[in-house]
Amino acid sequence: MKPFNPPADLPALGKPLIIELITGRQIEGVRPNHPGNTDSAPIWHDMKGNRINPEEIAGWKLK
Predict the structure, then answer these.
(1) Nearest residue to 46 via CA among 23, 12, 21
(2) Mean pLDDT score, 44-61
(3) Residues contacting 20, CB < 8 A, separation 6+
(4) Which has fewest Cβ within 10 Å: 12, 30, 34, 60?
(5) Percent of the chain at pLDDT above 70?
(6) What pTM was estimated for this model as a whole?
(7) How far apart are CA 16 and CA 5, in angstroms?
(8) Which residues pair with 17 in a beta bridge?
(9) Would you state the pLDDT for residue 32?
(10) What pLDDT score does 1 carry?
């Protein structure tokens, strides 16, 4: 099983991800192609389009 990347190491935009939350829960998500999405202010969404607070993310890996 691939380990999770730390949230500070940002994934490429638009790639499907498995996101691990600080609660231990894992969800499918994406770092969307969005004009306001920068390395200093990353935007994360689940696959339903709901925004995920970056402070809630423990790690990520490519789906």
Answers:
(1) 21
(2) 96
(3) 4, 26, 57, 58, 59, 60
(4) 12
(5) 98
(6) 0.91
(7) 14
(8) 29, 62
(9) 92
(10) 67
